[in-house]
Amino acid sequence: MKKILTIMTLMVAFATIMSAQNVKAIEKTMSLGKQKGFYIEVEGGEKENLKDIWTDYMKNFGKTKHNKKAKEYYTKDVRIPVISSSNSVDVYAIFEEGRNQATIYVWAVSGGEFVDNSKGLKIFTQDYYLIARKEVINKEVKEQEKILKKFDDRMNKLIKKNAGYHKDIEKAENKIRKAEENIEKNLNDQDEIQAELIKQKEVLDMIVEKFNNIGKN
Description:
7 strands, TATA-Binding Protein, alpha+beta, 3 helices, 23% strand
């Protein structure tokens, strides 16, 4: 368990270092046309899960709505100082499923214009990435804990069976030891009976001899 948690800690730390490099600028079509924004790929992430994480993340700033037609999430007229210290901001996000990862695209409009190559928006996206990545790793840890528990349960069953086998051996050894004692006693009894048989045969022979000698004298 400690090993899993250590790995999780290392992975999160690594994600923190790499997130700045992974957030990239892009020009991509969204509900308001082809606009410049940022995107980042979340390794091991699933689109639906990342949507939920994004919605929770944005609760710190305002209410997020879903544009089903554009498959887009938007949060309007909110204050996000890291993006704009003077104006309110509209934030848009689109999620795409990939192979063993999911990608989030983020745009921001401030003062009626799209934020272009904003360091603030990049940091904002990085912060989301760290939260999402932690959630993904936490999920992986829980899955590995379940697998570990299954192996632990199997090991406990094997240990219990092993103890049962040792008890069976102990019982068998006791039974063999008792049988050996019975064999020894049986042989002693046979010797005693054999001696009695010889004596009894001698007695019988004497009686038979007496019977045969009747009338001969």
